[in-house]
Design goal:
The complex is a heterodimer. Chain A is α+β, with helices and mostly antiparallel strands. Chain A has helices spanning about 5-15, 20-55, 80-90, 105-115, 120-125, 145-150, 160-205, 205-215, 220-260, 270-300, and strands at about 60, 95-100, 130-135, 155-160. The two termini of chain A are about 20 Å apart. By secondary structure, chain B is of the alpha/beta class. In chain B, a hairpin with a 2-residue loop joins strand 9 and strand 10 (about 230-235). Classes of the chains: A alpha+beta, B alpha/beta.
């Protein structure tokens, strides 16, 4: 096996089929970039889940003077009721990891920070806001246990699970991710078909060479190797373009645009990009080689 | 039928052996070859004659294992082709040189590179190529034209390049399918002299041809096919009586 000879054949092949080679590179690049973005969105969803589920808490709002729920018929929550609730929460360990009692004053301070741009701040007083227990669970999915224990109990106005709101948000993200993945897979199929077609044209345009190779006893592998290498090289260049695209998305779209605009959440780090890049290379090269191999088996038979 | 073990060595020293070979192409009603049995000994020079469609090409394709017989067995260079796995076919073809009417040179490679191609694709080193190719080019009378491109050569010279390429691996068999079909009589004679010289090195030559003058002049063994049947096998024969 002579590397120099094979490589010069590969170079000739790539140059002679330049337009098709460029087409393959661009298609591989675009489809892998989409595929990479789909993977990046998935990492993003995971990152956000980690970030948010770590922070979510169950809030048990207690009755204040203007509560209207049935369980608040007795008026503002009493100290005994509060002590009882806290004791019951303690007894739910280890599901209940942390308990934090938020006073009306604290609730007010948080409120004016959250709504600092809204005129509503001016009309809210400390008394209007409820006291609450903020409870962090070791397993956020077991929210029901807490809810059923405290919902409707005298002195408790409402039990709130932030996770439920997040779930809806993540479903939306999941949908977007699925769409990106479907588009990426469609593009990958198009890429495979294009490579199949390109290889067919390459095999046809070089049938004189391959015919002579067969006649003088070149092995099948030796005849197919330049074609396979061409497909692999085109795919590798495409994967490089896709990785470049992904780096741009991370550097500009995520870090410069999204992250400053949505400071309340965490965004994917560079580690996600580093993890996705090899997947793009492997997927691209494997698909290209597979497509080329299957085509050549048909068109370059002994 | 068990062949391999029971065959005496006498069967395997023959360069080409056809045993009752029939080839039927799926799209055709009449077999391209029917019940053909013949043997070619090492070092023979054989003309294969017959009208177009008589089965000459099928015969040559069977020797190269580009086709497999519908019935019967083909032995080439001591190998039963029916038992030769596909991945060993390239090994077989390295022992067979092939020359065609249309030369089949690579137009974008020089004379030297065209011949070297046959060595390069079977993995010979650059130093071997540098040594062997000039020798063969000298043998076929193309010394000094190594760096010409095929379109700068005459038809006869192009066919010499093709012969050089076929012979560069020192094959046991040289198959020539109408090698003089595109050449004028004087040039053809030169090619025939070259094939004779190659034959004298011990290489068996099988040449399919329509060129009666050459066959009559050379007085070698003649095998005639007619509609897929072997109708004549004559040592020191001529092209045909009926002409």
């Amino acid at each position: 096996m002579r590397a120099r000879f094979v490589l010069s054949e590969v170079g000739n092949g790539l140059r002679r089929n330049l337009t098709m080679t460029i087409a393959v590179i661009i298609t591989v690049g675009v489809s892998l970039a989409l595929f990479g973005v789909a993977l990046l969105v998935r990492s993003q969803v995971d990152t956000m889940k980690d970030f948010w589920f770590d922070k979510v808490e169950v809030s048990i709002f207690l009755c204040n003077d203007n509560s209207e729920t049935a369980s608040c018929a007795g008026g503002k929550v009493t100290d005994t009721q509060k002590e009882q609730i806290e004791a019951d929460l303690q007894s739910l360990q280890p599901l209940v990891q942390e308990i934090y009692f938020e006073t009306q004053q604290e609730a007010y301070e948080r409120f004016i920070v959250q709504y600092r741009n809204s005129p509503i701040v001016d009309s809210v007083t400390v008394d209007a806001l409820p006291e609450s227990f903020r409870v962090k669970l070791s397993d956020p999915t077991k929210y029901d246990i807490v809810a059923s224990a405290f919902e409707g109990r005298p002195g408790v106005e409402q039990v709130n699970d932030q996770r439920q709101f997040l779930e809806r948000f993540f479903q939306l993200l999941g949908g977007l991710q699925a769409i990106a993945l479907v588009i990426a897979i469609a593009m990958l199929i198009v890429t495979v078909l294009l490579i199949v077609n390109t290889m067919r044209i390459a095999a046809f345009s070089r049938r004189r060479e391959t015919g002579i190779m067969r006649l003088v006893g070149a092995s099948n592998f030796y005849i197919q190797l330049p074609f396979l290498l061409e497909a692999a090289i085109a795919a590798a260049i495409g994967a490089t373009l896709a990785t470049g695209g992904l780096i741009l998305v991370k550097a500009f779209v995520v870090d410069r645009v999204l992250a400053p605009a949505f400071q309340f959440t965490a965004f994917v780090g560079w580690d996600a990009v580093v993890a996705i890049a090899p997947i793009l290379y492997i997927t691209g090269i494997a698909l290209a080689c597979l497509a080329a191999f299957l085509t050549l088996r048909k068109y370059l038979r002994v | 039928m068990d062949a391999g073990s029971a065959r005496p060595t006498a069967y395997t020293h023959r360069v080409i052996l056809f045993e009752n070979v029939t080839k039927l192409y799926p799209t055709q009603a009449r077999p391209a070859l029917e019940g053909v049995s013949l043997e070619v000994e090492k070092g023979e020079f054989v003309f294969l004659v017959g009208a177009s469609g008589s089965g000459k090409s099928t015969f040559l394709r069977l020797v190269l294992k580009e086709e497999t017989p519908t019935e019967g067995r083909v032995w080439v260079a001591g190998k039963d082709l029916g038992r030769l796995s596909n991945w060993k076919v390239p090994q077989l073809r390295r022992r067979i040189g092939t020359v065609f009417q249309d030369f089949r040179l690579l137009p974008n490679k020089t004379v030297f590179d065209n011949v070297a191609f046959a060595l390069e694709v079977i993995g010979k080193s650059r130093s071997q190529v540098e040594r062997i190719v000039p020798e063969v080019l000298e043998l076929v009378g193309l010394e000094g034209k190594e760096h010409r491109m095929p379109d700068e050569l005459s038809g006869g010279e192009q066919q010499r390049v093709a012969v050089a390429r076929a012979f560069v691996n020192k094959p046991a068999i040289l198959i020539a399918d109408e090698p003089t079909g595109n050449l004028d009589p004087a040039t053809s004679e030169g090619i025939m002299k070259l094939l004779e010289r190659i034959n004298r090195t011990g290489t068996t030559v099988v040449m399919a041809t329509h060129d009666a003058a050459i066959v009559d002049q050379m007085r070698k063994r003649v095998i005639e096919l007619e509609q897929g049947h072997l109708v004549r096998d004559q040592s020191r024969g001529v092209y045909g009586y009926s002409r």
